[in-house]
Amino acid sequence: MPTGISTIAGPEAREQESGCINPSSMWSCALPKEQQAANEPYAANQPNFRVEIRFQNGSYDHSTAIASRSLHSQMLARSANQLFNPSPSPPSSADQTFLGRTTDGNSEPYAGEETPFYITLLTTEHLSSQFTKRQRNNSTSSSNDTDTQADPFPDVGSLIPSPATDSDGSAAAAVLYPHPSSQPVRLYNRDKDNEHYGFYTYFDKSIFLASHTPLTGRKDNVANDTDGGSTREDARVRCTWSQTRFLVQIWTKGEKTGKSLFNRAAANSTSDSDSDSDSSETSAAVSSATDFTRPGSFPYPVTITIDRHGGQTTRKMVYCYGMEEDTHVNGTEKKFQIEDRAVNGELINPAPGIFNLTSPDSGNEEGGNEGGYDGGTGGCGCQWVNWVGSD
């Protein structure tokens, strides 16, 4: 497993499914409009990725670290361990086992094996909205849970989370994929041809739309909503897919499963402007972190998937807020959206809907007897690969 910072450049969009929602423009596998220029010359649905992988000595039984007993060493180790605190927290073991068994095609142990590796998704460009905040009120959420249990017809509007905003109160930037930090990497299918490292996490996928259709229900086709939605300035709606899954799979035996990295493209403007391919003084570490010439510097075949499997049922939903012309969110104009998570597939243990949250299993985020919800196949999704071949 390569450690350090490396890139995945111009991956191919292998799967793009938006048929779970109406209008279908609410789901997109393309970067938000504001991020597309920085991704050129690749298409909007070929997003670049930059990852950092760290190795933690002494993190599990097979680690090569030698334990030190000095107080100074212990303090240094404690400081170093802070680099390995995952954000967000990894999914539960039950959720990982359920999806490993029903969705991801893993062999036992379905949740994989512990490794000493941790992965962080870094940004590939400088984001202007670095201080996005989620305006959540925990006491309100608790109140909503209580009301839901007491009232078979809850106030639907109260179940919708507060909108995500920037520090100035304007709508937060749209998000195609997340930037989780220090996620523990696990090993799946040991010694098999499809052996791979991987992890997954959940995030709020979001998109801007110039059309009012998600709020009004009236057909209002807007060409600007295709391929990543509209710009924030043109947006009249911001839609959020909470508890969307982000899955990374790193194939260790690509040659046995027919996965070959894309051929190396000729060095051109796809590399960062501050890197000089002709300079012999550029270190390998720096070039691997800034190399956006396809397929990038990551040396293994990788599959990156965004889908709607798993997650916490009480937080998993699709909702939209209206927006004003000054890019601020209209907090009173909001609406749930109907999502078909089984489209073109078959779900295993489908999650209850928002009106079924009082069912016996609904409060159990472990998914009842199954261990999780919304396993199987189907639903909206995106998948990118840096390889050619077959599964």
UniProtKB/TrEMBL annotation:
Domain of life according to the entry: Eukaryota
Sequence ranges of Polar residues compositional bias: 82-106
Compositional bias (Low complexity): 137-147, 280-291
Positions of region (Disordered): 1-20, 82-112, 129-170, 266-292, 359-379
Entry protein name: Uncharacterized protein
Biased composition (Gly residues): 369-379
